[in-house]
Specification:
Blueprint lengths: L7 E11 L3 H12 L4 E5 L15 E2 L10 H11 L6 H21 L13 E9 L4 E7 L5 H16 L2 E4 L1 E8 L5 E8 L4 E12 L20 H8 L17
Parallel strand pairs: 1-2, 1-9, 2-6
Antiparallel strand pairs: 3-5, 4-5, 7-8, 8-9
Length: about 250
């Protein structure tokens, strides 16, 4: 099919989010709850996004099993990144992690429990107390299906918040105006082959990694770097492209 201006349908939103994994759906939820008109595009059903492969847990210094605090988590994360991580971002993540875990709990995420009803925390590699002195149990998990539980929880909350989901839609390229500002995306509805221009005041790319650029990868077949390609074609610089995650058990 060849496309002309006449057969490209235009729709307008406050925000378009490309990708509906954990980060994309959490962002969509926050914006929808603030009253914005949000479009969430995903080339698979949201609960099948690659976040579903995350098994082990969410690290947060709740201290439910033994003494722990965010400073220890901060130290472990910096050390685990071989001192290459953005330390401002790491500090923010470690400070906010307990609040985010409790937030997910209140959304309905079924974390494993201790007999007293608190969230059970399991041991995980690289988690220590007192700056590497001894191991600590810090990972908050939902059995071995943490990512699965997170996606279902966030999807249910987004449905309640009236996020507009575009399922099995493929984002193609960013739309830029004469000044170079991003004003939306072009997208293909896979079922019909119809092309759309989704205009927005803001566009968020939450498309995950691109592990499938390698011949062997534990990443899902959907992890093809679509968002990275969209940004590169639009002239937006990419950063830290040498870092790729191959999840040990995903």
């Amino acid at each position: 099919m060849s496309y002309t201006k006449q057969n490209i349908t235009t729709r307008k939103f406050d925000v378009v989010i490309v990708g509906a994994g954990g980060s994309g759906m959490r962002a969509a939820l926050e914006l929808s709850r603030a009253g914005l008109n949000v479009a969430s595009l995903s080339k698979v059903f949201p609960t099948r996004s690659h976040t579903v492969a995350a098994q082990g847990g969410v690290s947060a210094s709740l201290g439910n099993m033994s003494e722990d605090n965010w400073h220890y988590h901060f130290y472990d994360t910096i050390k685990g990144s071989d001192w290459l991580g953005d330390q401002d971002a790491i500090e923010f993540m470690c400070r906010e992690a307990p609040k985010v875990v409790y937030e997910l709990e209140h959304f309905g995420m079924p974390f494993d429990r201790n007999p007293d009803g608190t969230i059970y925390q399991r041991p995980f590699g690289g988690h220590t107390a007192n700056y590497g002195e001894k191991p600590v149990q810090r990972a908050c998990a939902a059995a071995d299906r943490t990512g699965h539980a997170m996606l279902h929880t966030l999807y249910q909350q987004n449905v309640k918040a009236k996020t507009n989901f575009f399922v099995e839609w493929m984002a193609l390229d960013l739309i830029r105006d004469a000044d170079g500002d991003v004003v939306g995306v072009t997208a293909l509805e896979l079922e019909t082959g119809e092309l759309y221009a989704l205009q927005a005041k803001a566009v968020l790319l939450a498309t995950g990694g691109a592990g499938r650029i390698f011949a062997a990868s534990t990443n899902a077949f959907i992890n093809t770097g679509d968002g990275l390609g969209m940004a590169a074609r639009a002239g937006i610089p990419l950063q830290d492209m040498e870092f790729w995650q191959f999840h040990p058990t995903g």
